[in-house]
Amino acid sequence: MARNEQYPGVLKTPYSIWHRNQHDGIAYSDIDKISQCPACGKALFLADLIFNANNQYKTKPFYTKRIYLEISTALQIPFFELYYTTEGRADNGPLESLSVRRIAPTKGDLQHINLDKWLQYLEFKVQEHIKVCQSKDYLLKRVTANNEHNKNFTRRNNYVKLLSIRS
Ligand SMILES: [Zn+2]
Which of 27, 39, 46, 84 can pair with 139 through a Cys bridge, CB separation 3.0 to 4.6 Å? Predict the structure, then answer.
């Protein structure tokens, strides 16, 4: 078995399979999540997604965290470990629960968070960025579009209010 294939969640793309079968003189990391502005694409935060099948909330070794910490420091964006469980505890089942621990810029306590609270945080990170967003017009168009994706967008007005403030 090639390196890392014993860990669930490791990407198995043709490139990753090829790379992981090479020698020990090279390495690379998959960044699990980079949250970004849906309009201009600016990076908002990083997260390592950790399947938490046994409720251990086990942090990753420093070597694994290091690349996230470097990117987080360089871009001055937070880095979280995001633990998830799934219905039926299968790694590919629907998402059931989330727990989050901030690692950078400062370490926070593990928080168990319901899915809507997490969605609110994701919205907050975009809203916090609006004042410097370079594509405000497109963001407004995107959040107010009447389409299938936006039909359950209950807090849309928070965006509309912020986007109507002209600086
Ligand atoms: Zn933006």
Answer: 39
Residue 66 neighbours by CB distance under 10 Å: 12
Q: How far is the CA of 67 from the centre of ligand 1 (A)?
A: 24
Residue type, 82: L
Q: What is the pLDDT of residues 88-105, one digit of tens each?
A: 877 778 999 999 999 999
Question: In what helix (H) or strand (E) does residue 20 lie, and over which residues does it extend?
Answer: helix 14-20
Q: How far is the CA of 66 from the centre of ligand 1 (A)?
A: 27
Ligand 1 (ion): residues with CB under 5 Å are 37, 39-40, 42, 133
Q: Closest Cα to residue 110, out of 55, 31, 69, 34?
A: 55
Please, are residues 87 and 71 in contact by the beta-carbon 8 Å criterion?
no
Say how far apart CA 150 and CA 135 lie, in whole Å. 19
- Calculate how far, in angstroms, residue 154's C-alpha sits from the geometric centre of ligand 1: 20
On the question of pLDDT at 59 being above 80, the answer is yes
Separation of CA 61 and ligand 1 centre (Å):
33
